[in-house]
Amino acid sequence: MNPRVERARVLITVKAAPEPSSTYGDTVCVAGIRTDGAHPEWIRLYPFPFRWMPERVRFKKYDVIEVDVHRGTRDDRRESYRPDIQSIEIVDHLDHWRHRHEIVGKVAPTSTCELHRAALANSQAPSLGVVPVASVEKLEIVPFVGWTEAQLKRIADAENLAPLDLFGDGMDTPPELQAPRFTARYRYHCFADGCPSHTGQLLDWELGELQRRHLLNLSDDEAKGEIEKKFLTQKFASHRETSFFVGNFGDKVKRGSFSILGIYAPTQADAAPTLF
Fold first, then answer.
1. Where are the domains of the chain?
2. Which of 90, 97, 115, 221 is the most buried (most CB within 10 A)?
3. How many CA atoms lie within 13 A of 82 on its CB side?
4. How many alpha carbons lie under 13 Å from residue 106 in its C-beta half-sphere?
5. Of 10, 9, 19, 7, nearest to 261 (Cα)?
6. pTM of this prediction?
7. Complete DSSP assignment for 49-107
8. 169 DSSP β-pair partners
């Protein structure tokens, strides 16, 4: 075995929306908490050609997986690894918030203000974090403006590829990648003293899946209402302790900007420390 290859055990906490890829058609960036070391720590895994992967290894959020990983050559962020997708094994799924919090709660929370300051000062500063949300000023839901020229080129390049068969399953070409109908951005305050507020786009897979599976036959206003109900009313209900999973960009010029990769919303009871 390559000595640089490591077997990682990861609680999946983030699945970002798929992005066009000229190699795979589209890929998904995944992040989670690695639990096989001396203490839990963040790990970013990319790329995953998710729609091409067989059902048996299409892991979900809060699955625990084991996968062979190695450092990539393009992404120098310290949490970033490249997965061997043929080595994926799903070993568990954590259904209950309390069981999830037994792992997530061991990772020190931070603030977007602190992550931003650190990333501007040092490109090797933490690029992932869990940020408790002090307040949300607004959830802005707007029509998707369309793929960029670079993304359209990747989609066109992918159409010329032979069907990808990474697992020897004789898979058919999956349906065409669908653009989202809406994008969403939060304007929020973290708990840092004097936080001026932050704006972050929600990149969570769940936003696209909600639109694709449940909102197709709704009017724009009705669809926006359903998105707001799920990602504002429900996620920030008064009985929940809500945080954002945030991450920055691989481009060093953009390292100070942090997007919202997912929402962590255990109940207050499940997030409370236990005596034993």
1. 6-97, 109-144+180-271
2. 115
3. 9
4. 16
5. 19
6. 0.92
7. -GGGS-GGG---TTEEEEEEEE--SS---TTEEEE-GGG-EEEEE--SHHHHHHHHTTS
8. none
